[in-house]
Amino acid sequence: MATSKNRVQCFVCNKEKNTYNCKGCSNEFCFPHLKEHRQRIETQLEEIINDHDQFQQTIIQQKQNPDISPLIEQINQWEKNSIHQIQQTAEECREKVMKSTQKNNNDMEKKFIELSQKLKEIREENEFNEIDLNHLQLKLTQVTEEFLQPSNISIRQDLHKFIKKTSINILSFEQIQTKKKKFQQFAITVAGGNGLGYQLNQFYNPNGIFIDNDKSIYIADLSNNRIVKWKSNSNQGQIIAGRNGQGNQNNQLRFPTDIIFDKENNSLVISDLGNSRVIRCFDQNQTNQQIIISNIPCWGLAIDKNGFMYASDV
């Protein structure tokens, strides 16, 4: 504080007195009010010191117990909420799957009873032919596939969230048919298209296919017990396996369902469902079929870039 020889007004009482200038706030105070002003400043200093000491204590506690941070508490609460949400969603999904599975099982049981009744009638009447047997075998295969791999239930994950919210997507039969119809509206026929039959321009329940580098399509013609090669822009196909009718001989097939190409061995690999085997045959030597896997009711085949083959055992 500095002393002023001129009489000026005190900042507090507004009276002309001998005043003293406070260089902190640049105001003039008479002596009594200067003491009050000084006491007020000292009180403010004590408050700052007290806040400082409290903050110092907080730092010490934080070092001793780093897990009591407010951010850690928020994270802990987020964790609890997330776990609860995941458990709740998982329970809802399980409940939906069990209900849908029970419904599918009931539907499959009805279809199986109908198929059993049909088999019983045919056996008792002793009135059947190859077409009837092919139809029954196909029906049994379809029912088995639907039971083991139901197409109306799947798992869907929302990958755009940090916590993946998993839900069950159940499609009705009408929704599945609608999706198929939407695709068919934009489709063009590249093979067959001449009705159901056994001629070289016809198929009877075609299943698995693959396309080679020449854009030729290889088709597993299930109920005709053959593999057909259909070249691009051709009007008919060429039988490359199964030309000797249905059977279990080395040069025969029984309800082939899928076909892949093995580049390493330059050969075709066929899932021969009715004979419970996977065989290999060569395009240039159709009579030389080799059994790769036996005693396997294989429906689908796949091969990876390393040449490893995968077969589905239904």
TrEMBL record:
InterPro entries in the record: 6-blade_b-propeller_TolB-like
Coiled coil: 38-65, 98-139
Key word Coiled coil present: yes
Keyword annotations of the record: Coiled coil
UniProt organism field: Adineta steineri
Protein name as it appears in the record: Uncharacterized protein
